[in-house]
Sequence to fold (413 residues):
Amino acid sequence: MMGSKLPFALLALAVLTTTAHAQDRSSDVIARGEYLARAGDCTACHTAPEGRLFAGGRAMPTPFGTLYTSNITPDTETGIGKWSADDFYKTMHSGRFPDGGLIYPAMPFASYTKVTRADSDAIYAYLRSIAAVNQKNKPHELRFPYDNRQLILGWRTLFFTEGEFKPDPKKSEEWNRGAYLVEGLGHCGMCHSPINALGGTSQSEAFKGGLIPMQNWYAPSLTSNREAGLGDWSIKDITDLLQTGVSMRGVVYGPMAEVVHNSLQYLTDEDTRAMAVYLKSISEPSPPPPARTTLPTTESSLLISLGKAVYDKQCASCHGAQGEGKPPHWPPLANNQSIEMQSAVNPIRMVLNGGYPPGTKGNPMPYGMPPFAGLLSDNEVAAVVSYIRTAWGNRGTPVSAREANELRAAPLK
Fold:
């Protein structure tokens, strides 16, 4: 009798072992999916302020009206609970809902199309594992004629090329991993590329910088060393900036601080380095252009003279009398690419609104900059920004009080 029970016991043990292995594999896939969802910064759009995780409902103002993000929890009535892995991949890859409906390109499907099927399946598995939230999607509030989804067909013809990322065989595995993250999941081009009147970007303009619509922050070019091109940076300086929000060369504020907080700080050292290798490689050396300004010479001189007085009183204690700063917490202003860029939006906004780098595991208690909007007049803001853009060998141009005034009403987020 004992002999007859042995095969059954072995069979039961085999079943238990197989089940345990399957559960382990499932857990590994879900963990991988959570990591990839962070890399794609999905929470930034699909989680509303004070809202439930991935339940959508976040307002996304655009030049065409307001879009509201969708519920991607596994709720079967209002979320993606009825979607299959095929449905999810097709949505990511093609920018269409499972029923074929067109998705507005506020979702970066032009980047997500590069995501591999394996990574899509892992993200899908993760989203299936989170708490389901029964919350109906809020209808978009778009102006005519942009409320007609069929217009997206024209946009897709002009600006969307479907297809997974294809590694460049001439490049290293590390470079290709970085390219995949930057061009695909990270969708960095959504902000760091110029957006035209149709809300699109041509491939030839990718990563060349532009003003972020409705947010009034300038996302600098990643290809030009005159802006955020990182060709002159060390790999460590780039990885520090991506992982912690601060480095010996600069500090992130505004929308980029949110990206670091929500997404980049969670990437592995290997993935962060891969991104740094890729970003450094796409930078194109650019000689600094001759300084140009539309302001009369007399007005510029007066602004810069006033600006030095404001700087010495309000700024020098942190940034140094010669703009040398105290990196990494107080960034240098002398020879700072972000100060010298053609667009002066970011330095004006920093003087007006101040800000903090993100709190990250590598920099949990960041030093911030106070706002000066209530302390300085438009003339004083323009003066101090003009001063730091032209002092200590900086090759920026002066700005006007009108530019400072226009940015006082810019949204803080």
Notes: Strands lie at 59-62, 65-68, 141-142, 210-212, 217-219. DSSP finds 17 helices and five strands in the chain. The radius of gyration is 25 Å. The mean pLDDT is 88.
